[in-house]
Amino acid sequence: MGFALDERFWASAIPAVTASHEFLTFDNRGVGKSTGAIPSTFDEMANDAVRLLDHLEIDKAVVFGVSMGGAVAQRIALDHPDRVSALILGITFARPIEFMRRQHEAARAMIRALGPEMLTQASMLRMFTPEFFEMGREMVDQMVAVFMGDDDPVAGEDALLAQLDALDKHDVLDELKTVSVPTLVYGAKMDQMVPGFASVEIAQAIPGARLEMFDCGHGVMIEKLDAVNGVIADFLASL
Q: At CA 33, angle to CA 128 and CA 110, rounded to 5?
């Protein structure tokens, strides 16, 4: 899953994936229910995912990552190509983007001054389009309430800062030409977190990749749920 988020945020994709596949989700170390030393590179996170496959005795899998998780998925495909049968990369990026670097600096300052909870609240404002807030205010409030619940609190400062460091180090666009598995890339044209052009770059770099762009923001999996799930289900059924 993406920056700061745990496996609960895969809920919207469950119907699309389970129509044809088993869906295995997990939390990155330091987030949700996963403990242990907090990784600060996507190489480490990719190795964690492969160790999970080893533990479950799974030789190959379709690797699905969104936002930060999409960057980790790229790393898995590049470092462990024999473990990947197909790839789904949602609202993600493959090289340093100045807009994102500045965004991350602001996030670090907010985390240190006001705490992770305030970053969560502020991020919601850029996650969705203004229209979505008008049509789905109760849904957004419920999402925030779940994310900040006492049973599963928001990720701590150390984990968030480490993930921001990993985001700033990610630079694999030139390597993606070596990816040879079926790949679906989807992005959001009005994304204020990971610019839509980053998805276009990825799709152009991976031979034969399928690209789908949606008219909304970073919260595309919620805001355009039916459309996104239709694309995911169609891609998985084609494998």
A: 45
| 62 in Cβ contact with 238 (< 8 Å) | no
Calpha distance 120→107 (Å, rounded): 10
The structure's pTM equals 0.92
Query: What distance in Å separates the CA atoms of residue 135 and residue 76, rounded to the nearest whole number?
Result: 37
Provide the residue type at 221 as one letter: M
pLDDT at 135 over 80: no
Q: For residues 231 and 181, give the distance between their C-alpha atoms in angstroms, rounded to a whole number.
A: 17
What residue segments make up the domains of the chain, in order of their start?
7-238
How far, in Å, are 178, 183, 185, 199, 212 from residue 204 at the CA level? 12, 11, 10, 9, 12
**Predicted local distance difference test score (pLDDT) of residue 9:** 87
Q: How far apart are CA 18 and CA 159, in angstroms?
A: 30
Domain 7-238's class?
Answer: alpha beta
Report the distance separating Cα 221 and Cα 53, nearest Å.
25
- HSE, side-chain direction, 13 A CA sphere, residue 150: 0
pLDDT tens digits, 67-79: 999 999 999 999 9
Structure token digits, residue 179: 């990816």
State pLDDT tens for residues 91-130: 999 999 999 999 999 999 999 999 888 887 788 788 888 8
In what helix (H) or strand (E) does residue 212 lie, and over which residues does it extend?
strand 210-214
